[in-house]
Amino acid sequence: MRIVDLRSDTVTTLTDKMHLAMKKAEIGDDGFGEDRTTNKFEDLAAGRVGKEDALFVPSGVMGNLIAIMVHTKPGDGLICDRNAHINSMASGNTAAVAGITTCPLETDTVGNFDKEELESHINLDQISTPKTTLLVYENTNNLAGGTVVTPEAAYELSMISKKYGLRIHLDGARIFNSSVAQGVEVAELTRYCDSVMFCISKGLSSPVGSILAGSKDFITQARRFRKMLGGGMRQTGVLSACGIISLEEMVGRLGEDHDNARLLAEGLAKIDGFYIAMETVQTNIIRFTFNLPKLNCRKLIEDLERRGVRAIYFNGNFGRMVTHKEIKRADILYALEEVQNIVASHQR
Ligand SMILES: Cc1ncc(COP(=O)(O)O)c(C=O)c1O
């Protein structure tokens, strides 16, 4: 059966060049700082995001958690989007591991905070409420539909944070998608944050890993928390070798994923039962709602799965499709045809 896997860009497989690079990588024990390929990758990554230093971590979840642990102390509070990955998809680690209370805020359709509301939730003095010490936001915003945060919006958030002495951690799991979509350097998007995490294992096609970047001092502390969480690894050069290729060769093709996402979104929007806020289709993620009298979103996604077209069902009428390297234009057309067939079969 033909499979068109639109669940996530995490399903991307490594390229032939990555396979070869893994085999040839100069490796050593990263616990002793002796893995030359990882050292090179971390230097390259720090440079790309315009930070002093960087650390290779096993996952985006761990990278975000480490950043939160460095920037806060147990009992503090952080502010983020209600739908942020750290709030809704990291198994509650902010509370369970870091001891932090999250103050999740509603954002608008494209994931922007209401600035006044944001400011009104920052607590510095009220002793019965956790002291706000950190703001976390995503660029791109996953559950808003892969929407971008512009350099101007990032600057505005930094001004608010500065006013109240907050730190900013940027969950930039897909920051390269944001950079390509906006035609701006990644460093322009990371300039105003104290730390940034980005993933190489999503659209950039590496098999494993993320980067956490910030000041030298931040990374020194992050290294200790990585160890504490069991994220210190050994011959990581086999993975870093892929990361180097991700940064040097895989960024340029992300525009193709964005074009395919638009094609898919425009096609879905024409099918009965679908609603897509087109202004949210900015990169490679399509957030949609679907409902028909005889077919709900969950059932649609189950029926699609049986036909080899895979999407994610979240809750209510809400589902998601993501384009990536394995998805070609022909796959999009095929997926649209299958969706149309299922919908038509429930309308007879
Ligand atoms: C915005 C965002 N942050 C963090 C993560 C976590 O990354 P990982 O799956 O590598 O732990 C994801 C994963 O999809 C994500 O979308």
What characteristics describe this protein?
binds pyridoxal-5'-phosphate, 15 helices, 14 strands, 43% helix, 348 residues, Aspartate Aminotransferase, domain 1, alpha/beta, globular, 5-stranded antiparallel sheet
Describe the 3D structure.
By secondary structure, the protein is α/β, with parallel strands linked by helices. It has two domains: 15-249, Type I PLP-dependent aspartate aminotransferase-like (Major domain) (Aspartate Aminotransferase, domain 2, 3-Layer(aba) Sandwich), CATH 3.40.640.10; 253-345, Aspartate Aminotransferase, domain 1. Helix content is 43%, strand content 18%. It contains 15 helices and 14 strands. It has helices at 16-24, 36-48, 60-71, 85-88, 93-96, 115-120, 142-145, 151-164, 175-182, 186-190, 216-228, 237-250, 254-269, 297-306, 329-345, and strands spanning 4-5, 53-57, 77-81, 101-105, 132-138, 167-171, 195-199, 210-214, 274-275, 285-292, 295-296, 309-310, 312-315, 318-322. The strands form three sheets. Strands 2-8-7-6-5-3-4 form a seven-stranded mixed sheet, with helices on both faces. A hairpin with a 2-residue loop joins strand 13 (312-315) and strand 14 (318-322). Helix 2 runs parallel beside helix 12 and helix 13 (254-269) runs parallel beside helix 15. The longest helix has 17 residues, at 329-345. It is globular and about 65 Å long. It starts with a strand and ends with a helix. The model has no long low-confidence stretch (mean pLDDT 98). Bound molecules: pyridoxal-5'-phosphate. Pyridoxal-5'-phosphate binds at residues 59-61, 64, 85, 138, 142, 171, 173, 199, 201, 210.
